[in-house]
Amino acid sequence: MGQAIRKFVPRAPRYVLQPRDNRVLRYGSEKDQHTPHKTNVVDLSETGLAYLVDRECAPQIGDMIRLEFTIPHQNTVSWWGRVTRITEYDPAPYQVAHRNEDGSAADEVLIGVEFHNVDENQRLKIREGLAERLQQLDQQRRQERWQALAYWFQKYAVRTTLILAVLVVTLGVLYALSRPGPNYDPERGSPWGQRYPWLNFFSD
Question: Any idea of the CA torsion for 93, 13, 47, 132, to the nearest 10 degrees?
């Protein structure tokens, strides 16, 4: 019953670590603290994190794990966490896929860990670090969009200028043709063939 209710408890917003972030995680189980392991953090929130591990080395739900990782724009921290979920790993949302030495896809699972006995000040550090990192990413994306736009304009400047020039000339010609001539009568119109005499190429 407790596990069923737990599914409806909202999770804290997660930040998926980017390739430029320090994703290194060193961890060890409570039962074997003298054998540290090393892997990558996949996502991080103020309440926990998720990391990848080979299926055969995966801990059990409820195990206590010693975690050492770096908070974005903060220092390296070392906390305890409890394993709360183990799920199949789909690299598509995270864009992180590991390969074995023979090139085959690694058989990994995603381990979700909830921080244990982390006070509000420590949560605040995570919150501030993630907020600063998200702001930095947003600025980088805006800068990249402007750079892409400038590159496109520079690459296609001549072509774009010619297209605009042709469009302006076309609109000017259409406007000139739509104007009434000096021999135009509002009631009778223009005499046949006399509105645009300069177009009568084949007349005598």
Answer: 100
Residue pLDDT, tens place only, 140-169:
888 888 888 888 877 887 888 888 999 999
> Is the sign of the CA dihedral 121, 123, 129, 134 positive or negative?
negative
User: Exposure string (b/e) for 113-152, b if CB count within 10 Å is 16 or more?
Assistant: bbbeebeeebeebbbebbeebeeeeeeeeeeeeeeeeeee
pLDDT band at 202 (very low <50, low <70, confident <90, very high): low
Give tens-digit pLDDT for 171-187. 988 887 777 666 666 66
Any domain includes 9:
yes
Domain count, the chain: 1
